[in-house]
Design goal:
255 residues, alpha/beta, 8 helices, binds S-adenosylmethionine
Length: 255
């Protein structure tokens, strides 16, 4: 079967995806612990497999030693180049696309993949990946992984949007606008929920300046948002990491 999708730029970096890996361990830990086969697919690992190697190591440490990661790439050259890093059976690299090469993983991480596609390709790609029964974490980050956003998606559709940043480097939450998932990035315009949300987050940040550093400022901004009626999921242990998760409908495009 021909893999679904197209070869795109392979840019990646060591440690770039640590923020989303930590979230996956938290959000999908119970799913992976309960699974008969705790299989995770890293779709589109790029020019080197370093972030897939890191994902496997982090989940083995934080969740369960038996977690298996299969890195799927649509580019056969990148599949061949990755083989020296394989450590079967727990870490493998194969050719595949959005159809997931016939695998039935518990979790799929697809990072910095859909940003290079057209917006109208997002929904079919989400559907193809989640039709396997997988819980999908799909998002975007900057080159070094200091600012990231991602959507959690299952077969019912998108569930949540998460923003995550290294707070010591965060000038202003407006920075998230440049790194939104493909499904939202073109909707950051007045009248759209994501624009309104980022506006309110920015205003909460502006009103929360404190001499006690960026972490306290972020926590105060999250408190202010919640006080204004914005549902924020998870809890202070996540917020302290510079992470903020909201239900998808609070960000979903209206046009
Ligand atoms: C920018 S790299 C991302 C690397 C890594 N995930 C990261 O975030 O650092 C995107 C990779 O996704 C691959 N890709 C694009 N579409 C794909 C698809 N449908 N299935 C599998 N891989 C895909 C490209 O070939 C490219 O190597």
């Amino acid at each position: 079967m021909k893999p679904l999708g197209a070869i795109t730029r392979g840019t990646t970096n060591p440690n770039r995806l640590r923020r989303v890996d930590n979230f996956i361990a938290y959000r999908c830990g119970d799913l992976l612990r309960a699974a008969a086969e705790p299989l995770v697919v890293d779709l589109g690992y790029g020019a080197t497999p370093v972030t897939a190697v890191e994902l496997r190591a982090r989940l083995a440490r934080a969740v369960r030693a038996e977690v298996t990661v299969v890195g799927l790439e649509i580019d056969i050259v990148r599949v061949n180049d990755a083989q020296p890093a394989a450590d079967p059976p727990r870490l493998q690299f194969r050719r595949g696309g959005f159809e997931l090469a016939g695998l039935r993983p518990v979790v799929v991480r697809a990072f910095n993949v859909l940003r290079q596609y057209a917006e109208d390709e997002v929904a079919p790609a989400w559907r193809a990946m989640t039709a396997t029964g997988a819980f999908l974490v799909e998002g975007t980050c900057d080159e070094l992984g200091r600012v990231a956003t991602w959507a959690c998606v299952d077969a019912t559709g998108p569930l949540t949007l998460t923003l995550s940043a290294r707070l010591s480097d965060l000038d202003h939450p407006a920075t998230f606008a440049e790194r939104l998932p493909k499904a939202l990035i073109h909707h950051n315009v007045p009248g759209e929920p994501i624009h309104d949300f980022l506006d309110r987050l920015g205003a909460a940040w502006d009103a929360s300046a404190t001499p006690f550093g960026p972490r306290q400022r972020w926590l105060a901004a999250v408190d202010r948002l919640r006080g204004d009626g914005q549902p924020v999921l998870d809890g202070p242990a996540r917020w302290r990491r510079g992470e903020l998760t909201i239900p998808w409908p609070a960000s979903a495009p209206v046009s």
